[in-house]
Amino acid sequence: MKEVYDFLKKCQTYYLATAEGGQPRVRPFGTVDIFEGKLYIQTGKSKNVSRQIKENPKIEICAFDGGAWVRIQAAAVEDERLEVQQHILDAYPMLKDRYSPGDGNTQALYLKDAVARFESLGGEPRVIKF
Questions:
Q1: In this structure, is the dihedral angle defined by the CA atoms of residues 76, 82, 87 and 93, taken in order, positive or negative?
Q2: pLDDT the model gives residue 12
Q3: Side-chain half-sphere of 61: how many Cα atoms within 13 Å?
Q4: Where are the alpha helices (DSSP H) in 12-121?
Q5: Report field, pTM of the whole predicted structure over 0.85
Q6: pLDDT tens for residues 89-108?
Q7: Confidence of residue 122 (pLDDT cuts 50, 70, 90)
């Protein structure tokens, strides 16, 4: 899991896919954090992505660093604890003007049953499950 975290941090931007009905939805994300042994992402409950994850928690993440990429399949599970929200926002202080722990909008989601597949051109794929 730490390798996945490090890769996403290095890329800075990754793309998160959800589904809305039969239509895929993809958008750039940047938050990633490890708290109590789980990999977390963060969004706002007022966003469409939050509603889509609530309706169908299956997500995919893809990131590319110029030479390799990772694709992650997982279920996104909400964790409403304030200490998780605080931990993520401490890691991303630029978000504190839009989010704060317990504001009713900040949403922390951890990845459950995640399968990360690292690949590169000409390289052997590697799979990490967490």
A1: positive
A2: 97
A3: 31
A4: 48-55, 82-91
A5: yes
A6: 999 999 999 999 999 999 99
A7: confident
Count of helix runs (H) and strand runs (E) in the chain: 3, 8
Rounded Cα distance between 49 and 108, Å, is 12
Q: Give the length of the chain.
A: 130
Q: Which 3 state secondary structure label does DSSP give 70?
A: strand
Nearest one of 24, 8, 18 to 49, comparing CA atoms: 18
Q: Whose structure tokens read 């975290």? A: 5
Output the CATH code of domain 2-129.
Answer: 2.30.110.10
Query: Closest Cα partner for 41 from 23, 59, 67?
Result: 59
Residue with tokens 């890329």: 11
Sign of the dihedral defined by the CA atoms of residues 19, 24, 30, 32, in that order? positive
Q: Quick one: tokens of 117?
A: 């597949």
